[in-house]
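lol ok so funny story. i was supposed to be doing the assay writeup but got distracted and ended up predicting the structure for this chain instead. priorities right. anyway since i did it might as well share w the group, maybe its usefull for someone
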Amino acid sequence: MPSPISRTVAVIGAGAAGLCAALELRREGHSVVVYERENKVGGIWAYTPETELDPMGSDPARRVVHSSLYASLRTNLPREVMGFRVYPFVASRKPGRDPRRFPCHGEVLEYLRDFAQEFGLEEMMRFGMEVWHVGLVEDRKWMVRSKKRNGEGGDDEVYDAVVVCNGHYTEPRIAEIPGIDEWPGKQIHSHNYRVPEPFRDQVVVLIGSSASADDISREIAKVANEVHIASRSAQIEDIGQLPGYDNIWLHSMISSVHKDGTVAFHDGDKIYADVILHCTGYKYHFPFLETNGIVTVEDNRVGPLYQHVFPPALAPWLSFVGLPWKVVPFILFEYQCKWIAGVLSGRIPLESTEEMKSDIEAFYSSLKAAGVDKRYTHQMGASQFEYDDWLAGKSGSPPTKEWRKQMYFVTGKRKSSWPKTYRDQWEDEDLITQANQDFKQESELLA
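and the output, tada:
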């Protein structure tokens, strides 16, 4: 086997994915620069009370606030599952830290800071540098153009490869509602939700059924007069007042809204509402990336991508980390980054362009045959561990431990059955024991 080749690689973003990419690329012997528009690591986990002037986040000219976290957010995964394999997310003994099994967002940020410090990653960082252009130049290299957030100039540099790690929780996805242009109430996307106080004494319609929608609806209900949840996945038998609450109702999706302030639902109910809160997710957004139409985002499908990572026509010189959703993110980042780093060095062979295209076509055909819309292309859920283990096989890493899979599914069932208490009450102590035993072995093996 030929000696591994060292490449110059630009990583876009210093959130969890970007930090992981920096570590694995450097371990593989590459020369790495990480561009981060903020002045610290953390990405989405760097909470700010600041919100955008456009509450819907739909104005392309707006000043973008990257984080979408709300003040009370706690993880919906236990820390044992959530952490990187190489650096377990164990409770810290440092003062001011959150030792809970499902900690607050600030604890996750501190964990990522600790991770960066432990592996000396900040020496590769260029903080306060926003990438505004990534494009091909001669010899299939990439020009990365960046500017300082304070407006005092920037840099143009050429790299062998670019790894995109800019996250996908910043560009709001908005529900289309018949009659909304004439409806007199207020609208806001959850990207700009921080605290419940602005909804005091209001009648709120919340669209969505994600984990954050569950949390936000219950939090708002403490101060609002009424909260009405509109959900595409609502079952007929569940429609009506939520058990245990006197001011939360579940409905089917909104059918229309009207200029007298009414909101009508497909289940036949009608209410007068002050606010519609869109907890409707986000769009993939790469405003800096110019590929001459090779990579596109169509109905939230980023493609064509081989295994959600490499566009065949540009592989391996352009790659994406962290596109899949409904996953355990950090460990997925780890597996993807090991694969990317090994492919770039030549240590791991990559399938031919034609083989990658054929695989993508087969994948898209299977989604279509199953009636899955394009916007769910990157949704994984139960299939994520098969994907993780495929990636592990590519990089020569051990597959996902069984306790991690079981803990993920047990937590999901508990969250569904006891949404108010699942973060503080559990019965999987045997899995926690297995996790702690593995942490020692894994950190020694992978360090």
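The longest strand covers residues 129-136. The chain has a mean pLDDT of 95.
back to the writeup now i swear
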